[in-house]
C-alpha cells in the first residue's frame, strides 16, 4: 500500500483560498473591463452622434448664414432693379464681404454675358456651360450645388439661383465657396476629441471636405483609398446611414439639411478604448499586488492560527503511540484553545482509565487461569461420562439382540403349536371316520345278524328241503362252522382293534388292518359259500345226510346266532368306546387350541419386548451422542478458557505499553 | 435558500403583474371624461379636415376636446401647452408650428402625454405610449408620385422633372422629396431635375417660380409638388403660358386638387386621409390615457412611436371617390 504523504492544514487552506481569491479577482477585473468597455463604447457612440449632429447643425447654420447674405444681395438686386453701374457697385461690394466667398457674387445671363466684382479673381470663359449656371437655372432661392473645378484649378462648390427681377432675359447669380475653406470649417466644428469627419455629396459620392486635402473632390471609394473609405462608399450608395463600425472605426452619418451633403464622422475604436486599456492594465497591476498581499496575509494568519494546532498534533501523535506523559500549554480562548484544554482533560482521564484497565486486566488474568483449570476438570469428567455411556450402549445393544431372539423363538413355538393343532384336527377327522366305519361295521354286524336269522330260516327251509333232499347238510354244517371260525377270528380282531384304538395315536392304522382283515374274512366267507354251493351240487345225493346234518346244523346256527347277537353287543360296546375316544380327542384338540393361543400371545409379547428394547437402544445411543458432544463442548470450553487466559495475558501486555 | 429566493422573485413578479393589470385594465376604447387639448399650428383645408374629424370622434367616444389655432405662432402654442398643464388636461394633440421644438414642447407639457400630428418630430424625441406621432408616412406619398411618373414615362430613358417643395425643414418636405427622388434615381433612367425649390406649400409662390423656370426655356416633362396647393400654382402658370398635357402631381387630395384632376388640369395626387388622421389621433390619445397597448392600434409600428394612417393614390379614374 502506498503511504499517503501528509499535507498540512496550512497548505490546504492556502491551496483553496488563494485560487478562489485569484479567480474572484480575475472575474471582477474581467467583468469590470467588459462592463466598462460596453459603457465606454455606448458613451462614445452617443458622444460621436451628438458631435456629428452638432457639427451638422453648425455646418447648416454656417451655410444658411452665407446663403442668407447671398440671398439678401440677390433680393436687393431683384427689388432695386439696378442699372449696370449700380449692379457693378453691388457686385464690387460683395467681393471680400465674406471670407467664405472672397470672389463675391457674379452674374451670367442667357446671352452669355458675365458680370463680376472688380476685385474678383473669378474667371469664366464660358459662363452658360458652367456648372453653377446650369444648377442656378433649376432654382430661384440660392442653394449650393455639386463640387466642381474652376478654370483656374480650384475645387469649389457654387451657390446659385435664378434672378427673379422680372426681366425677360434669364440671369443666374452665383458665388463660389472653395472646398478647402469648407474643409477647414467642417473640421473645426468637430466636438469629439480624436474624431475625424468628412463631407460627401451623397448623389455623386464626391468628397467635399476632409482633413486629408488629397481626398478633396475625389470620388469616395476610388482606387488608392483605404478600406474604410470603400466601406463608407458601400454604406452611402446603399443609403443606410445608421451607426456602424467600419474597419475598426465607429462611424456615424448625418445628412446636412438643405443640401445633398452627407457628413461622415468617425473615431477609431482603439482610441475610444485606449483609456479602457489603461484602466485594464491598472486593474491587472492592482489585482496582482492585492493577490500577493492577500497570499502573504493569508499565509501569516494561517501560520499564527495553526501554531497551537501543530502543538496539539505533537501531543496527539505521542498519545497515539501510547505516551500519555505529555502535556500541553494552552493560551487564549478561541476554539483551538478550547480544543487544547479538552485534550489535556482527555489525557488526564485516559491516564486514570489506563490505570484502572491495568487492574482490571490483572484480575482478569487470574480469573482466566482458574477458569481454565475448572474447564479442564470438567472436560475429563465429561470424557469419563462419555466412555460410560458407550459401554452402557453396548450392553443395551446386546440386551436388545437377546430379546429379539426370544421373540423369534416364541414365534417359532407358536408356529409349531399351530402345526400340532392342525395334526390333532386331522386325528379328530380320522377319529370321526373311524366312528363312521365302526358304525358301518355295527350295521354290517346287524346285517350279519339278520343274515344269520335268514340263514336260520333258510336252514329251517333247507331242513324241510333236506328233509326232502337231506344229503349234504353235514358239509354245510362244516362250512357254517368255518364261518363261525371266521366270526370268532373277527371277534378277536375286533378286540385287537379296540385295544389299538384305546392306544389312540396309531389307532387309525390299526383299524385299517382290522378292516382289511375283516375284508379277507368276508372273501373267505364268500369262497366258502361258493364252495358250499358246489358242494351242495356235489352232495345232492347226500341230501339225506345233509338233512340229518341240517338238523344238527340248525341247532348250531341257533347257537351261532346267539353268538352273533353277543358279537353285536360287543360291537356296540366297541362303538361306544370309540365315541368316548373321539370325545377324549376333542378334549385334546381343545387343549391344543389353548396352547396355540398362549404361544401366540407369548410371541406377540416377546415382539413388543423386542421393540421396547430397540427404543431403549436408540435412547441410549442419543444419550451417548449427547455425552460425546458434552465432551466436545467441554473441550471447546477448555480451549476458550485457554484463549481467555491468553487474551488476558495480551491485555495485560498492552496495558503495560501505556506510559502513565 | 435557493427556493426562498425564487419564491421571493415569484412574489415580486406577481405583485408587478397585478400592479400592471391595475393600470392597463379598465375602460379600453372608451373616452369617457377624458380631457383633450388640440393645438393646431395653422388652419388650412387639410388641417381643418383633421380637426373636424377629431371633434366628431371625440364626441362619439365621450371625450372633451378643446381646439386652439396657433396661427403659425410658436409663442401661442407654448402658451396653450402651459395652459393645458394648469387646467390638467389628460392628453395634448399637437400639430407643431416647428417640429424641431418637439423636445421643448414635451418638457413644457410636464408629464402630460403629447401626440404630434401633421408635422413629424425627429424619432429621438418620440417615446411609445407617451410622445407619439399620428400621421401618414411621408415617404409613401413621395414613392407613389415617383411610381406614377415612372409608369407614365415607362418608354422614355430620360425624364425631365421639376420639383416644388414645402418649407426647408418640414418633415413632410424631406420625406416626400427624398422618397420621390430615391425612387426615381433607383429606376435606372436618366432623371434630370430641371427645377427644384422650396415654394413653401404656397400656390402663388409656386406659380411665380414656375413662370421664372419657363423663361429659362428648359424642357420639362412632369412637375411633382409636395402638396396640391403648389400643384394648383403650376396649373395656373401652365394655363397662362398655354401649356397643355404636362402631368402635374400633387399630394393631399384637397378639394381644389381633386377638382383639378376632374378637369384634367392635374394628373395625380395622393390622398392623405385627414379624417383618418383625426380619428386615429383621438383613438391614440384615449389609448394612451387608458394605458392600453398602443402597438395594438391600427397602423401602429412595432416600436410604438408612430401610428401610420395609409395614403391612397388618386387620379382621374377614382377622383370622384374623394370629392
From TrEMBL, chain A:
CDD domains: HAMP (cd06225). SMART domains: HAMP, MA. The chain crosses the membrane at residues 12-35. One of its GO terms (biological process) is signal transduction. Residues 360-617 form the Methyl-accepting transducer domain. Signal peptide: none annotated. Keywords: Membrane, Transducer, Transmembrane, Transmembrane helix. PROSITE patterns: CHEMOTAXIS_TRANSDUC_2 (PS50111), HAMP (PS50885). Belongs to the methyl-accepting chemotaxis (MCP) protein family. This is Methyl-accepting chemotaxis protein. It comes from Roseburia faecis. The lineage of its organism: Bacteria, Bacillati, Bacillota, Clostridia, Lachnospirales.
Automatic annotation (TrEMBL), chain B:
Keywords: Signal. PANTHER family: D-ALLOSE-BINDING PERIPLASMIC PROTEIN-RELATED (PTHR46847:SF1). It is found in: Cell envelope. GO terms for cellular component: cell envelope. It comes from Roseburia faecis. Residues 1-19 form the signal peptide. Belongs to the bacterial solute-binding protein 2 family. InterPro entries: Peripla_BP_I, SBP_2_dom. Pfam families: Peripla_BP_4. GO terms for molecular function: carbohydrate binding. This is Sugar ABC transporter periplasmic protein. Its main location: other. Residues 41-291 form the Periplasmic binding protein domain. It comes from the Bacteria.
Amino acid at each position: 500500500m502506498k503511504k499517503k504523504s501528509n499535507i498540512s492544514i496550512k497548505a490546504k487552506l492556502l491551496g483553496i483560498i488563494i485560487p478562489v481569491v485569484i479567480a474572484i479577482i480575475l472575474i471582477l477585473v474581467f467583468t469590470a473591463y467588459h462592463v466598462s468597455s460596453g459603457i465606454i463604447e455606448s458613451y462614445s457612440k452617443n458622444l460621436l452622434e451628438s458631435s456629428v449632429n452638432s457639427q451638422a447643425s453648425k455646418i447648416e447654420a454656417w451655410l444658411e448664414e452665407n446663403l442668407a447674405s447671398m440671398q439678401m444681395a440677390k433680393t436687393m438686386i431683384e427689388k432695386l432693379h439696378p442699372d449696370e453701374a449700380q449692379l457693378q457697385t453691388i457686385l464690387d461690394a460683395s467681393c471680400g464681404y465674406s471670407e467664405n466667398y472672397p470672389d463675391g457674387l457674379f452674374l451670367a445671363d442667357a446671352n452669355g454675358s458675365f458680370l463680376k466684382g472688380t476685385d474678383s479673381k473669378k474667371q469664366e470663359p464660358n459662363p452658360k456651360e458652367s456648372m453653377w449656371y446650369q444648377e442656378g437655372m433649376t432654382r430661384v432661392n440660392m442653394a449650393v450645388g455639386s463640387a466642381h473645378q474652376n478654370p483656374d484649378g480650384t475645387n469649389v462648390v457654387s451657390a446659385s439661383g435664378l434672378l427673379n427681377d422680372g426681366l425677360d432675359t434669364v440671369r443666374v447669380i452665383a458665388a463660389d465657396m472653395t472646398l478647402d475653406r469648407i474643409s477647414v470649417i467642417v473640421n473645426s466644428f468637430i466636438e469629439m476629441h480624436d474624431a475625424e469627419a468628412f463631407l460627401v455629396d451623397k448623389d455623386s459620392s464626391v468628397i467635399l471636405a476632409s482633413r486629408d486635402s488629397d481626398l478633396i473632390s475625389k470620388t469616395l471609394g476610388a482606387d488608392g483609398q483605404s478600406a474604410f473609405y470603400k466601406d463608407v462608399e458601400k454604406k452611402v450608395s446603399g443609403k443606410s446611414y445608421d451607426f456602424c463600425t467600419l474597419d475598426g472605426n465607429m462611424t456615424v452619418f448625418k445628412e446636412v439639411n438643405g443640401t445633398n451633403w452627407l457628413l461622415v464622422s468617425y473615431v477609431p475604436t482603439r482610441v475610444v478604448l485606449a483609456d479602457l486599456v489603461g484602466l485594464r492594465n491598472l486593474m491587472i497591476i492592482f489585482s496582482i499586488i492585492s493577490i500577493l498581499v492577500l497570499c502573504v496575509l493569508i499565509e501569516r494568519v494561517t501560520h499564527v492560527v495553526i501554531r497551537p494546532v501543530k502543538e496539539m498534533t505533537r501531543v496527539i501523535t505521542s498519545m497515539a503511540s501510547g505516551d500519555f506523559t505529555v502535556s500541553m500549554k494552552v493560551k487564549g480562548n478561541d476554539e483551538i484553545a478550547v480544543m487544547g484544554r479538552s485534550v489535556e482533560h482527555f489525557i488526564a482521564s485516559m491516564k486514570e482509565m489506563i490505570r484502572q484497565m491495568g487492574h482490571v486486566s490483572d484480575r482478569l488474568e487470574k480469573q482466566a487461569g482458574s477458569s481454565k483449570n475448572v474447564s479442564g476438570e470438567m472436560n475429563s469428567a465429561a470424557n469419563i461420562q462419555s466412555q460410560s455411556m458407550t459401554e452402557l450402549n453396548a450392553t443395551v445393544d446386546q440386551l436388545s439382540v437377546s430379546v429379539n431372539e426370544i421373540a423369534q423363538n416364541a414365534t417359532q413355538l407358536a408356529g409349531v403349536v399351530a402345526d400340532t393343532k392342525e395334526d390333532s384336527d386331522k386325528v379328530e377327522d380320522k377319529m370321526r371316520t373311524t366312528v363312521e366305519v365302526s358304525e358301518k361295521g355295527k350295521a354290517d354286524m346287524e346285517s350279519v345278524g339278520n343274515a344269520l336269522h335268514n340263514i336260520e330260516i333258510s336252514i329251517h327251509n333247507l331242513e324241510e328241503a333236506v328233509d326232502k333232499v337231506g344229503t349234504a347238510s353235514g358239509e354245510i354244517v362244516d362250512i357254517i362252522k368255518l364261518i363261525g371260525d371266521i366270526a370268532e377270528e373277527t371277534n378277536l380282531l375286533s378286540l385287537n382293534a379296540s385295544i389299538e384304538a384305546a392306544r389312540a395315536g396309531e389307532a387309525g392304522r390299526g383299524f385299517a388292518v382290522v378292516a382289511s382283515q375283516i375284508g379277507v374274512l368276508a372273501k373267505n366267507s364268500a369262497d366258502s359259500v361258493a364252495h358250499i354251493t358246489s358242494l351242495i351240487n356235489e352232495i345232492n345225493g347226500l341230501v339225506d345226510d345233509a338233512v340229518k346234518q341240517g338238523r344238527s346244523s340248525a341247532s348250531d346256527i341257533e347257537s351261532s346266532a346267539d353268538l352273533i347277537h353277543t358279537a353285536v353287543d360287543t360291537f356296540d360296546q366297541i362303538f361306544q368306546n370309540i365315541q368316548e375316544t373321539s370325545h377324549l380327542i376333542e378334549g385334546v384338540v381343545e387343549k391344543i387350541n389353548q396352547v396355540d393361543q398362549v404361544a401366540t400371545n407369548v410371541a406377540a409379547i416377546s415382539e413388543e419386548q423386542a421393540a421396547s428394547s430397540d427404543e431403549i437402544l436408540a435412547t441410549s445411543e442419543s444419550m451417548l451422542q449427547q455425552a460425546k458432544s458434552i465432551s466436545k463442548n467441554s473441550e471447546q470450553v477448555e480451549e476458550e478458557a485457554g484463549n481467555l487466559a491468553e487474551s488476558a495475558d495480551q491485555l495485560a501486555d498492552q496495558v503495560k505499553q501505556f506510559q502513565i | 435558500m435557493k427556493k426562498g429566493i425564487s419564491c421571493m422573485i415569484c412574489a415580486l413578479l406577481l405583485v408587478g403583474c397585478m400592479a400592471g393589470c391595475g393600470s392597463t385594465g379598465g375602460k379600453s376604447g372608451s373616452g369617457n371624461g377624458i380631457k383633450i387639448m388640440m393645438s393646431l399650428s395653422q388652419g388650412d383645408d387639410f388641417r381643418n379636415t383633421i380637426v373636424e374629424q377629431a371633434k366628431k370622434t371625440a364626441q362619439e367616444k365621450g371625450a372633451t376636446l378643446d381646439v386652439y389655432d396657433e396661427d403659425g405662432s410658436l409663442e401661442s402654442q407654448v402658451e396653450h401647452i402651459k395652459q393645458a398643464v394648469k387646467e390638467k388636461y389628460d392628453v395634448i394633440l399637437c400639430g407643431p408650428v416647428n417640429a424641431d421644438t418637439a423636445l421643448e414642447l414635451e418638457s413644457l407639457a410636464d408629464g402630460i402625454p403629447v401626440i404630434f400630428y401633421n408635422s413629424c418630430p425627429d424619432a429621438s424625441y418620440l417615446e411609445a405610449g407617451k410622445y407619439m406621432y399620428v400621421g401618414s408616412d411621408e415617404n409613401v406619398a413621395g414613392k407613389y408620385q415617383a411610381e406614377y411618373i415612372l409608369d407614365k414615362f415607362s418608354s422614355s430613358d430620360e425624364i425631365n422633372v421639376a420639383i416644388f417643395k414645402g418649407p426647408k425643414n418640414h418633415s413632410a418636405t424631406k420625406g416626400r422629396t427624398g422618397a420621390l427622388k430615391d425612387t426615381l434615381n433607383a429606376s435606372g433612367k436618366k432623371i434630370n431635375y430641371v427645377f427644384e425649390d422650396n415654394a413653401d406649400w404656397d400656390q402663388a409662390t409656386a406659380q411665380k417660380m414656375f413662370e421664372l423656370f419657363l423663361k429659362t426655356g428648359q424642357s420639362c416633362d412632369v412637375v411633382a409638388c409636395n402638396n396640391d396647393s403648389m400643384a394648383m400654382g403650376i396649373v395656373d402658370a401652365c394655363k397662362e403660358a398655354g401649356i397643355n398635357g404636362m402631368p402635374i402631381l400633387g399630394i393631399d387630395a384637397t378639394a381644389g386638387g381633386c377638382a383639378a384632376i376632374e378637369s384634367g388640369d392635374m394628373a395625380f395626387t395622393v390622398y392623405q386621409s385627414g379624417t383618418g388622421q383625426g380619428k386615429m389621433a383621438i383613438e391614440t390619445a384615449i389609448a394612451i390615457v387608458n394605458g392600453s397597448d398602443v402597438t395594438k392600434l391600427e397602423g401602429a409600428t412595432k416600436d410604438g412611436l408612430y401610428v401610420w394612417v395609409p395614403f391612397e393614390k388618386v387620379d382621374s379614374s377614382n377622383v370622384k371617390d374623394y370629392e
